[in-house]
Every structure is written in C-alpha cells, then in structure tokens.
Specification:
- It is a single chain.
- A hairpin with a 3-residue loop joins β2 and β3 (84-92).
- With 99 residues, the chain is α+β, with helices and mostly antiparallel strands.
- It is elongated.
- The protein has a 3-stranded antiparallel sheet with strand order 1-3-2, with helices on one face.
- It has a domain at 43-92.
- Helix content is 45%, strand content 26%.
- The chain has helices at 2-14, 20-38, 58-70, and strands at 43-52, 74-80, 84-92.
C-alpha cells in the first residue's frame, strides 16, 4: 500500500497541469465536435450530374444542374474529367439538416 501512494505522488509531481484557459478551449473544441456529429443530416437522395465542356452541350448540363438545385439538392463534390466534370449532388433530410 505504501508503494502505491509513493507511485501516485511521483506521478502527480511529474505531470504538468493544463492551464485553465487551455482546458476551457479543449472542452469547447470537444463540445463543438460532439454537436457537429449529432447534427449531421442524412442523405436522402444522390445524383451524379455530368457537364460536358462542348459548346453545344454545356447549356444542357447547366440546365440540369439548375433544375437539380431548384429541387433542393446541394453540390457535395465535383470530379473533373477529360470532357468536362461530374457533380455529385445530394438531397438531405430536412428534419436533421442544420442549414
């Protein structure tokens, strides 16, 4: 038992304490991360919209993207290809959507 208390004292004396200001920042970052994880919205639907960079076809892709945006989809990622790009668009669950 005596060895345990000596060991505890050595550990306590050898460790540096975090200043209260830094501890508050750490707690705030942790709470922000937890809130962000809890408020993540669910993806209800996903669409891959291709836009070709051809003079005649670019307006078609533009129109499809504008209609998709009007339907409530949000761009999630774009992928550049040799002939244009592909937009990954998602529709999120409105109940859990933080936006």
């Amino acid at each position: 038992m005596e060895t345990k208390t000596k060991l505890e004292e050595q550990i306590k004396s050898g460790t540096t304490k975090m200043p209260a200001i830094d501890a508050g920042k750490f707690v705030k970052q942790f709470e922000d991360a937890a809130d962000k994880a809890m408020s993540k919205s669910k993806i209800v639907e996903i669409r891959f919209v291709g836009v070709e960079f051809d003079y005649k076809k670019v307006k078609i892709g533009e129109g499809i993207i504008n209609r998709t945006l009007a339907e409530g989809f949000q761009p999630m990622k774009d992928i550049i290809t040799d002939s244009g790009l592909v937009l990954i668009m998602v529709k999120r669950d409105e109940e859990s959507c933080p936006i």
